[in-house]
Structure formats: structure tokens, C-alpha cells
Amino acid sequence: MEAQKTVMQSRRRRLWEALDERLGLSALRYPVPAHANTLGYMLGGITLFGFLILIATGIYLTQFYNPDPSQAHDSVVYLVEQTTFGDLVRSIHYWTANLVVVTVLLHLLRIFFAGAYKRPREANWLVGLALLAITIGFVFTGTVLKWDQEAYEAMLHNMAFSELLGGIGSWFSPSFTLSVPMLTRLYAVHIAVLPALFLILIAIHLMLVKYHGISPLPTLNARAGTWGKEGTGRFSAHLRRMVGYGLWLLALAGVLALLWPAPLGYPPVPGAEVTKPPWLFLWLYAFENWVGTAGLLWPPLVLFLLLALVPFLDRSPYLAPRKRPVTVTLGVVLLLFLVGLSVYVALTPPVSHIQGQGMGG
Q1: Which end of the chain is more exposed for a tag (fewer CB within 10 A), N or C?
Q2: Burial (0-12, 13-18, 19+ Cβ within 10 Å), 7
């Protein structure tokens, strides 16, 4: 048995050496401290694995989806009812997207509470916020593509948002071009523009992680300015554990897909507004209830501006949350406020905000 194990390890080592010689995989390595293999510090890698699942399932879904407004909903129905594993793949895609949003937010919270945005990691914090914005863009455009009543109302809000931006928002409006329907353009954004931006930013994100190393544990004596290059763990073991967590994510998405298939509402009814947005946007819905469509623009802008300023406002050299009481307290208050708004909206009836607008092509 021991001899067989030794043979397997030798084969894996030779395979790695062969691939490394040709692809330079060792250039991806970085020092791995022991805490980097814990779940909290694996959230970024789990999220990346989730995006790989989304890409794989998304490629399958595009083979059957028709982005023409007159055919989109029927093509989703065809995918669900008549294609091989279509409903399962769509549901895995749907649940993985929801789980990825959760892991992205947990990753953000872990970095915030651990002070991992401090010098010299400020730039990577900003790149991470840009990746969060892209993730939100994926969720929004993916919601529109199924082209049911919820999707139609999301499209109306997209048009209202473009009007708030004035000339800058013309690209988001149907009037930008009359030759391509708005739904088709959002489909192109979902499968081409956002993935391209994501790949560019994730490459920068990973490069900066390799350059700075894993951020230290936020112990009482930990201070900003450390480079995290003292780890002695094996990168290959770190990578295997990351893949293992990613497979658990896939398994969870599969179970959820079997128990609760991805929802699909009835075809859109122009002029009606009877749904609420996905859970990620519920807090924005509350602002829209209070101030109208302007609530779609200013709250997220203020939120992202505050998050972007965090590394530059929190100049304390300490990483431990108890030594950053003001920053941590404000972060907790903001988090509870957003969660409270979301719960409130989830428990209240939907409100009509936009009426009388067309589908935009």
C-alpha cells in the first residue's frame, strides 16, 4: 500500500514538472502561511472556482438561448423542457450565481474586518471593489435575460437608470441604436463585455496577491505594512484544498438545483410592475420606494465611494478589529442597515415605480 502511494506521488510530481516546464506554472506560486488554508482565507479562491462553473454552464446555456425579445422567453422554456439536462444546467447556473454573490460578500467582509486592505494592499482592495461591481452586473444582466415579468421590470429600471445618467447613460438606453434590441445588447454585455473585464481584473487581482502575499492574521500585535511572504506551506496543497472547497460549492449548487429548480415566470406584460428585484438589490428597492428612481443611482454610488475610501480613511497601523473600533463599528452599522432594509423590503408588498414604458426594442 505504501509503495502504491509512493508511485502515485511520483507520477503526480512528474506530471507537475512536465506541465511546469512547458507552461511555467511555478510562476503562479506564492508563500502559503498556515492560516491561508482556512475557509475564511479561501473565500476568494472559492469565488473564482464558482465563476469557472458559471462559465462552463453559461457556454452550454448560450447554445439554446435566443436573445431576440420575441423569442427569448420561449427559448428558455425550450431549454428547460426539451433539451438534455437543460433545466439542471440552468438551475446549477442560477444557484452558483447566488452562492458566488454570497462568497464575494463574505470575502469582502473578511478583508474588511481583518484589515487586509491596509498598506500595501490598497490597490487590490480597489480592484476587488471593481470585481464586486462586475459581479453585480452579471446578476442584473442575467436576471434580464430570462425575459419573464421580473426580467421585463428589471429592463424598465435599466432604462430609468440610463435617464438618470443623462448623456453618459445613452449607451444603456434603447435610443443608442435602433438596429439591435436592448435585450440583445444586454446579452452581449453578459457573455462578452463583463467576462472580458472580469478576466482582466482577476488577473490583476491574482498578480497583486502573489506580489504582496497572503495578508497576516489580525492578531493584537499585527500591523499594516507586512508583505505576507513568510509562509512555508506547499502551494500545490493550497491549490488542492481550494479546488476541494470549489467542488463542495458545485455539490451544494447541484443539491439546490435538484430541490428548487431555477424560477421562470410568465412572459412579460407591458405596463405591469408586480415583482421585486433579486435579493441582492432589495436594499435599493427601499430607496426607490422613498425617493423614486433617483434611489437607483445615488445610494450605490455613495456606498461604493465609502468602500473605496476605507483604506485611505482608516490610517491606523493595526489590523485587529478591537484596535480599530471606530472603523469596525461603522462597518457593522452599515451592514446591519443594508440587511435590515433588505429584510424589510422582502416582507412588504411590491410597489409600482415605473409605468407606461415599453420594452425598449
Answers
A1: N
A2: exposed
